[in-house]
Amino acid sequence: MAEVTNDLIYEVLKSMQHDLGSVKADIRDVKGELQAIRTHITGLGQDIANIYQIVDRHDARLGRIETRLGLLEPAH
C-alpha cells in the first residue's frame, strides 16, 4: 500500500483547490445567466400587462360602438 506523505496530500489539495476555483467560476456564470432570465421574465410580465390594458381599452371602445349602433342595451 502506498505511503501517504505530506507531498502527496499537498498535491491532492492543490488539485482540489483548482477544481473548486473552476466550480466557483461556473456558479458565477450560472448566476449571471439566471439574472438575465429573471430580467427577461420581468419584461415579459410587463408586456403582458400592457397587452391586457390595450385589450381592455379595445373592449370598452367596442362596447361603446355596440351601444351606439343599438346592438346592446345601454347600462342603467
Description of the molecule:
It contains one helix and no strands. The protein is mainly α and 76 residues long.
Question: How many strand segments?
Answer: 0
Shape: rod-shaped
Order of helices and strands: H
Please state the average pLDDT score. 92
Q: Compute the gyration radius: what is it?
A: 32 Å
Low-confidence stretches: none
Q: Provide the structure class.
A: mainly alpha
- Work out the helix count: 1
For the sheet with most strands, the description reads: none
The quaternary state of the protein chains shown equals single chain
Into which percentage range does the β-strand content fall?
under 5%
Residue share in helix = over 70%
Question: What is the CA-CA span between the terminal residues?
Answer: 95 Å
In short:
By secondary structure, the chain is mostly helical. The protein contains one helix and no strands. The chain has a domain at 43-68.
Describe the protein's topology.
Elements: H1 6-68
Write out key terms for the chains shown.
1 helix; 76 residues; rod-shaped
